[in-house]
Amino acid sequence: MDSPTDNIESTETLTDFLNVFRASRNGVVYGGRLRFAHALALALVFKRKQPIGDTIYKALKLSCEHAWILAAFAIVYKGVLFAVKHVILKHNKASRKKYIHFIAGAIAGLLVYGQPTGGKLFSRNITHQVTLYCSSRMILAIGKMIAVKLSQSRTSDPNTTPKVHQQSKRMIENVSWYIYSMLSWGCCMYLYQSDPIFLHPSLRNSLEFMYNNERWKGLKGFFTQ
Length: 225
Description:
mainly alpha, flat
């Protein structure tokens, strides 16, 4: 006869297994919603002469591709977590949470976003965009973490008040952000003028629209062209 503990563990296993597919479903919903609005907005701004039917079709196509990528990543990531938790480390509960999220994320990132086999299962353009988006957010997160550590080391005196600690943290964050934004946009505008072919097409189109759109005639053209 099964003990209450066995019943609890079997219920947890089933829930975690179903959550693998739940995460995939969430990836489809989120990716579809996000990409459709983004693709539609870009088309209306940069391809205003394109027929509305083609615009909607391409937006839907990109939405499906984005949703498929997020769903695939979710399945691999959650699947690895499930395997580690319930198969590999089933009897070693103390080690379940050690590094497994990093390992699962790395494996899913390699298979879905890296595509080491060189296949065309996932859109290269979208996988590159999402990876670059993720890496930029990681840089900011790591920067904030370093700022907290540095502020703690600068204000290690037990007599330091929370206000002083917060001021030190804010100063480090501000200075690092000033340097980061200065170098990022300095390099961006330099590349745009010297070697724009190396910039991502969406960024290049945005810069082209804002800074090289100087062909206009008359007062009306100044505002509408």
